[in-house]
What we know:
By secondary structure, this protein is an alpha+beta fold. The chain has a single domain, classed as q64v53_bacfr protein fold, CATH 2.20.140. About 25% of the residues lie in helices and about 40% in strands. It contains three helices and five strands. The protein has a five-stranded antiparallel β-sheet with strand order 4-3-2-1-5. It starts with a strand and ends in an 8-residue tail after the last helix.
Amino acid sequence: xxxxxxxxxxxxxxxxxxxxxxxxxxxxxxxxxxxxxxxxxxxxxxxxxxxxxxxxxxxxxxxxxxxxxxxxxxxxxxxxxxxxxxxxxxxxxxxxxxxxxx
Length: 102
């Protein structure tokens, strides 16, 4: 199961140029790894890796990240927008129905 999401928040008037790159991939032990890179466009990214043994917890975390970023206007000054995403058939079958993206 593999997926990638690329989100961007950009508002030239208030100086916001940020991105979020989220990658879901399997581990060697049949668990899931959630890799998150984010920061200002053109700057070095902050990178984190989270491991999940439970698919429901992985889905919950992805939903939490996407909801927070896609509704960031009050906190940040503008919302992130989903620029690109890709996923394999297994991710489409098991995870996408639980998310509010297509």
